[in-house]
């Protein structure tokens, strides 16, 4: 849930780039208590033998050898092989609770705990949470002692099931803030204020402006012991209440809940975009009769994101994405980001002139706030990664769908988020994998229910030779993860030759003629200076970046490219990365980044910055294209013809080799690749694009 409850609002106020308004003063004016961030009084206990429960570490006054700690933090900021599989650790916070406010109690809000959290307050077990990437709340009930000393204990178990595949280090700890959130009898859960914008094709003009509404969505719950007769939520949008609407609810008996939804028009809308990231203040005031129960505040933006005739558009204009993905991983702290880390990530994205970024899991809410303010778009994704084996089981599909749900609810209020991707690199043939097929269908429905204002997406493996998959065709937006010319691929589905990437894209367009297609992942490791023909050199990475972008530019039906990744990060012990050099010892660091783990920019950085800066954000289209027919345009001196076969559903059919210039470009790429590969490594096959084991984390 990216809602800004009072607690979360106060925490966000402290961020360097966060533009949220502080909610505590407004809350106090109406008698709602202020939030209570748990930022001090923390201790930790290493429990490598998993004996803490038997020692009674959850009791408030146990005599174990606790050590001072800070929260957020990880168990260890180092990445030795011995710690990758995880361990058990305990956190304890001793604090004096706020005085009692009549009619209110508190929940404890955890922004993130990796991986499994068990929580006690003053020896009373509050609950358990198992998703390491989404926030969660626990009710404290009578366990909290107002105005007195309290002891919160959290057992964190980050021991990793080997069947769970993740493309990043297995960090453990309380990695984001913890806050006491005031709660009354009436609670508004998962509030959303989403933008419903309608722009003409090609964007607004004086004669055809964009129109806008905001859509409120949330769940009201009566947690009290008597019926609430007049529950309601008031929405205020914009400074001074430019838009105000009251959304009433039916009476709620104890324990009852109801879903509320409503829309209200926004006059003279000022739209959010990368070149002008306009933000509106949002205030939601929840009341029971004339008594305030809850106040939620954040900032949002109004924008239209659609796939029109196979092209991703923002506010009616065709986008050209250029950017780099990120991992929340800072040396010594892992994902336990400080405000300066968040500012640094945004600064680096702006320096490389990125208009978009991507991650494999829900980003920190402060980072999303900062990206909103900076005008950098986000390809948001649930951490459902290489899960086909687990998705065979109904309970594992439910777990994956719960992760999709938590990710979307947390991301949907951010204008920078342009899609909700439900998974990354599942089977290339999900139509023949029943569990994966069932998950993709359910996730598609869920994403559209939770946020109907954005096109849902899925990020696919790129192997040539596979047929069109109905399970993927149901998504209006497809991410293409490509390592043509870097990894070897699968038997009979080779990706070893970069010159095969262009034909693959052409065939993909014929298979998915109405989907928006974006290259969401590509990259090459680099660690040393050497010849351009030698994999893993800085020169090879630099040329590889140029060549991949040239292939994409030659195909205007591809809506852009996102490099993997902006900065190096910890991935797993003995990471190979796709190219094995005899006698070279490997570490746990993923080396495809444009910036080293230590923060040094590689030569490919400048190539990326130049290309990203010179690529227009919006594609210039002809009047016919603005009316719904994309115009064929060349790139790098080559022209690719796009043949439009207009039928009852406006399908596009692409003849990828209509122009001889493409043959010449790809012939040059093929010859260059052959020279590179002459006498080089023997790559391995695998069940992913990488060699076997390279990403089986």
Automatic annotation (TrEMBL):
It is an enzyme of class 3 (hydrolase). Keywords: Glycosidase, Hydrolase, Membrane, Signal, Transmembrane, Transmembrane helix. Residues 305-495 form the Glycoside hydrolase family 2 catalytic domain. InterPro entries: Beta-gal/glucu_dom_sf (IPR036156), Beta-mannosidase-like_N2 (IPR054593), Galactose-bd-like_sf (IPR008979), GH (IPR017853), GH2_Domain-Containing (IPR051913), Glyco_hydro_2_cat (IPR006103), Ig-like_fold (IPR013783), Ig-like_GH2 (IPR006102). The chain crosses the membrane at residues 639-663. One of its GO terms (biological process) is carbohydrate metabolic process. Residues 90-159 form the Beta-mannosidase-like galactose-binding domain. Residues 212-303 form the Glycoside hydrolase family 2 immunoglobulin-like beta-sandwich domain. Residues 1-26 form the signal peptide. Its EC number is 3.2.1.31. One of its GO terms (molecular function) is beta-glucuronidase activity. Residues 672-697 are annotated as: Disordered. It comes from the Bacteria. Belongs to the glycosyl hydrolase 2 family. This is Beta-glucuronidase.
């Amino acid at each position: 849930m990216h809602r800004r409850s009072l607690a979360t609002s106060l925490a966000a106020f402290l961020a360097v780039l966060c533009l949220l308004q502080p909610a505590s003063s407004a809350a106090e004016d109406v008698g709602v208590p202020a939030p209570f961030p748990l930022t001090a009084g923390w201790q930790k206990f290493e429990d490598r033998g998993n004996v803490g429960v038997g020692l009674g570490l959850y009791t408030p006054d146990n005599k174990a050898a606790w050590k001072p700690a800070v929260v957020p933090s990880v168990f260890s900021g180092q990445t030795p092989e011995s710690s990758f599989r995880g361990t058990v650790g305990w956190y304890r916070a001793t604090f004096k609770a706020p005085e009692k406010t009549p009619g209110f109690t508190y929940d404890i809000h955890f922004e993130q705990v990796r991986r499994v959290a068990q929580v006690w307050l003053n020896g009373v077990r509050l609950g358990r949470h198992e998703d390491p990437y989404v926030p969660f709340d626990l009710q404290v009930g009578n366990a909290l002692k107002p105005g007195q000393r309290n002891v919160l204990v959290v057992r964190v178990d980050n021991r990793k099931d080997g069947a769970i595949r993740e493309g990043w280090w297995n960090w453990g700890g309380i990695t984001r803030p913890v806050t006491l959130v005031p709660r009354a009898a009436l609670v508004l859960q998962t509030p959303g204020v989403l933008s419903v914008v309608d722009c003409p094709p090609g964007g607004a003009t004086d004669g055809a402006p964009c129109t806008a509404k905001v859509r409120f969505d949330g769940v009201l719950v009566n947690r009290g012991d008597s019926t609430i007769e007049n529950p309601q939520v008031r929405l205020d949008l914009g400074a001074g209440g430019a838009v105000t609407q009251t959304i009433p609810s039916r009476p709620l008996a104890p324990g009852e809940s109801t879903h509320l939804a409503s829309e209200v028009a926004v006059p003279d809308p000022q739209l959010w975009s990368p070149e002008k990231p306009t933000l509106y203040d949002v205030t939601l005031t929840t009341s029971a009769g004339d008594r305030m129960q809850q106040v939620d505040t954040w900032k949002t933006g109004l924008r239209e994101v659609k796939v029109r005739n196979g092209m991703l558009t923002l506010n009616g204009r065709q986008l050209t994405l250029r950017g780099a993905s990120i991992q929340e991983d800072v040396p010594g702290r892992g994902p336990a980001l400080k405000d300066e880390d968040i500012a640094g990530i945004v600064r680096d994205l702006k320096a490389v002139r990125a208009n978009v970024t991507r991650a494999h899991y829900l980003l920190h809410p402060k980072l999303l706030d900062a990206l909103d303010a900076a005008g950098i778009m986000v390809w948001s994704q649930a951490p459902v990664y290489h899960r086909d084996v687990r998705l065979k089981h109904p309970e594992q599909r439910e777990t994956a769908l719960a992760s999709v749900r938590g990710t979307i609810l947390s991301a949907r209020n951010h204008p920078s988020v342009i899609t909700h991707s439900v998974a990354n690199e599942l089977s290339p043939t999900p139509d023949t994998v029943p569990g994966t097929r069932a998950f993709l269908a359910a996730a598609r429905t869920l994403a559209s229910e939770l946020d109907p204002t954005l096109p849902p997406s899925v990020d696919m493996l790129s192997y040539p030779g596979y047929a069109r998959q109905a399970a993927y065709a149901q998504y209006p937006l497809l991410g293409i993860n490509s390592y043509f010319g870097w990894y070897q691929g699968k038997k009979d589905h080779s990706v070893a030759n970069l010159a095969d990437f262009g034909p693959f894209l052409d065939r993909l367009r014929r298979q998915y003629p109405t989907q928006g297609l974006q290259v969401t992942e590509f990259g090459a490791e680099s660690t040393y200076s050497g010849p351009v023909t030698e994999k893993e050199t800085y020169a090879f990475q630099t040329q590889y970046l140029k060549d991949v972008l040239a292939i994409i530019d030659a195909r205007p039906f591809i809506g852009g490219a996102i490099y993997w990744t902006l900065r190096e990060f910890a991935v797993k012990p003995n990471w190979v990365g796709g190219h094995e050099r005899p006698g070279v010892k490997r570490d746990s660091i993923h080396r495809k980044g444009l910036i080293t783990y230590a923060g040094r920019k590689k030569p490919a950085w400048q190539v990326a910055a130049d290309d990203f800066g010179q690529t227009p954000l919006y594609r210039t289209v002809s009047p016919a294209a603005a009316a719904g027919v994309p115009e064929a345009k060349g790139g790098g001196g080559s022209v690719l013809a796009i043949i439009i076969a207009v039928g009852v559903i406006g399908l596009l059919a692409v003849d990828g080799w209509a122009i001889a210039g493409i043959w010449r470009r790809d012939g040059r790429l093929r010859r260059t690749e052959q020279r590179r590969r002459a006498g080089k490594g023997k790559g391995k096959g695998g069940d992913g694009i990488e060699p076997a084991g390279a990403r089986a984390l």
